[in-house]
Write a structure and sequence with these properties.
Elements: E1 5-11, E2 44-49, H1 57-60, E3 63-65, E4 85-90, E5 93-97, E6 103-107, E7 113-117, E8 148-155
Parallel strand pairs: 1-3, 2-4
Antiparallel strand pairs: 1-8, 2-7, 5-6, 5-8
């Protein structure tokens, strides 16, 4: 079966929240803030591949979602970043944004990478908000949301065989 048009919802991962934590050790008097940063969300990346010929995969898989980033941890530990999702598309694929009908990408080379939806940034932990005047901040940032976009994929058809002369 040959499919040359598809509509897919792309969802990037959300960033993790920053942590609020404080050092609590026996030998450390008045331990300061130690909240870590949240991890960034995963992105959705389209890659041009010579071995894929049709958009048949997107007929059955209408939603592509990347992983979210983890929240920050104590002892200034960062949260784990979300994994990127790499989607192989055939050469000659044009990616349109459904909302405003603009061309987002034209994938025409082998190995061409295009970020369709970027993951959200992770929030900062409370150790970033410490100063000489405010030594024990109880605030942290929330992670940002990842991008959501609905795209229409169209495949430009190239002839494999050409006839010359009368049939």
């Amino acid at each position: 079966m040959f499919i040359d048009k598809a509509v897919v919802e792309i969802i990037a991962g959300n960033g993790g929240n920053g942590a609020i934590a404080f050092r609590r050790e026996a030998c450390v008097d008045k331990g300061g803030p130690s909240g870590g940063d949240g991890g960034r969300g995963g992105s959705v990346i389209f890659v041009g591949d010579n071995n894929v010929n049709t958009l048949l995969e997107f007929k059955y898989k209408r939603k592509i979602k990347a992983d979210d980033g983890e929240n920050g941890k104590t002892k200034k530990c960062y949260g784990h970043k979300g994994d990127d999702v790499i989607v192989k598309v055939p050469l000659g694929t044009i990616v349109y944004d459904v909302n405003n009908e603009l061309v987002m990408a034209d994938i025409s080379e082998i190995g061409q990478r295009v970020v369709i939806a970027k993951g959200g940034r992770g929030g900062r932990g409370n150790c970033h908000f410490a100063s000489s005047r405010h030594q024990a901040p109880e605030i942290a940032e929330n992670g940002e949301f990842g991008e959501r976009v609905t795209v229409r994929l169209e495949l430009k058809l190239l002839a494999d065989v050409g006839f010359v002369g009368y049939p």
